[in-house]
């Protein structure tokens, strides 16, 4: 185990359960989550990836970064869809919608990039899963519009993920990366 992974493992040991539960509890209060929404957040792999990246990358103030990014994620889910939903101007780059949660103080840039690539892959899979429903309901989806090529983007992301070794994120989340939509 290299120094970065050892540092991560030590932080997760100190942070993982009590702080994740704290973030979930406080988020439930701040965002007025129902019990069902609170449980969904607690079990959300996407939210855990978002919160874990600053720890895995050994960023400065990882708790603050994790909380800030989770708040942005929840704000989008809970009411800012009008401003945060995918729009045609996001089509130029799959990472456009992830920009707001891509700011980190210090840390290993390769590990950060790995985590963001995992989030992009989850988002892509979400667009694929919702494409029929989106088309039926008139919701903009870059796969439905033909602006994105699913296979090409997926292969590119998988290639990027294979080049950066981050067991801390992969072991926790990779098996679930295709489990449910963004």
Automatic annotation (TrEMBL):
It comes from the Bacteria. This is Uncharacterized protein. It comes from Treponema bryantii.
């Amino acid at each position: 185990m290299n120094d970065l992974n050892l540092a991560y493992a030590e932080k997760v040991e100190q942070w993982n359960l009590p702080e994740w539960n704290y973030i979930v509890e406080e988020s439930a209060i701040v965002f007025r989550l129902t019990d069902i929404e609170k449980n969904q957040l607690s079990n959300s792999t996407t939210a855990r990836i978002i919160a874990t990246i600053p720890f895995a990358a050994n960023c400065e103030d990882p708790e603050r970064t994790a909380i800030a990014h989770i708040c942005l994620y929840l704000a989008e889910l809970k009411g800012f869809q009008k401003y945060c939903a995918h729009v045609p101007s996001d089509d130029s780059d799959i990472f456009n919608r992830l920009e707001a949660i891509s700011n980190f103080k210090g840390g290993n840039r390769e590990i950060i990039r790995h985590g963001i690539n995992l989030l992009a892959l989850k988002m892509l899979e979400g667009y694929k899963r919702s494409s029929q429903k989106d088309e039926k309901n008139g919701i903009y989806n870059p796969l439905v519009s033909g602006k994105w090529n699913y296979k090409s983007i997926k292969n590119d992301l998988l290639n990027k993920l294979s080049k950066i070794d981050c067991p801390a994120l992969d072991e926790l989340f990779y098996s679930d990366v295709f489990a449910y939509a963004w």
